[in-house]
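Supplementary Note 3. Input sequence used for the single-chain structure prediction.
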Amino acid sequence: MSQRNDTPVRLAVLGAGLIGKRHVDHVLNEDCAELMAIVDPSDAGKALAAEKGTGWYPDFATMIRRERPDGVIISTPNQMHVANGLEAVAAGVPALVEKPLADDVAAATTLVEAAEKAGVALMTGHHRRHNPMIQQAKAAIASGRLGQLVSVHGSCWFYKPDDYFDLPWRREKGAGPVFLNLIHDVDLLRYLCGEVVEVQAMESNALRGNVVEETAVILLRFASGVLGTVNVSDKIVAPWSWEFTAGENPAYTHTQETCYMIGGTLGSLTVPYLDLWHNPTKPSWWEPIVRERLPVEYKDPLGLQVRNLCEVVRGTAKPVVSGREGLETLKVIEAVKQAAATGRPVRTN
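The predicted structure, written as discrete structure tokens, is reproduced below.
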């Protein structure tokens, strides 16, 4: 059932951790939304609800018995995403689930299929797709200004300090930079270049010696024929990652560098600064090459994601990133891990 556009959409945020707090603030900042409740069993969650002047519940079941939100944002720990998502689906409540949808493809498939069968909107929290610079990059590619895409490269280098790993789960399976960080980059490369059909990968944990990888190099084959390379490490001091280059999160230094290069037969594009390199006359390395910086107006993608959720609840828009899209990205990540473990190419479907 659609909702009147002049009525704020009542949202509940499940999980009061770092990302949950950011979602809470963005819900409060958007005129289209109203923060109905924070759902978190911890004292910190209860205190946050009191601070923000909103309702508090220890769990989804308690909340749904007392009042019903129009939609929920699920930012609980990864291992709880599917259970919380299924609760929302069973209650018929549209849900935005933080990435990753689940710890593995099988569990994510269960959630996505349940939502599709029930006709309940399910969104994945790959918020970077909402960023206007990504929308501009997508438009430039679609317009043909790059010609036929040939290759893409992504860099994801940063340094996580030793105390980051004081929490045991960050040293355990599923907590390495491929699963926690690169999943966002893979989602953007899928969005910009199309479906990934095959991956090859190598990993290393030689420096820290944790169970999880600290470095990985990955080859991607796209259905379109585009070939890609991605290099990720959380043990390198460097400015070439989305976190440093995009300026989305004030917690990170904003550098004037790039993290993706997308190449085609008529030109190449850097992301996030959207420098389009091309030959004014004809494509040739003998011809002059010029740079054109595409214009873009910055808007906070987390805020845009909240607006999209409100529009989905109202029935006036489709999810920018559906649950099915989140599942397809997770399939690529799982294939990367399998390829690194076996030393063999892995098909994604």
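The first helix runs from residue 18 to 29. The two ends are 35 Å apart (CA to CA).
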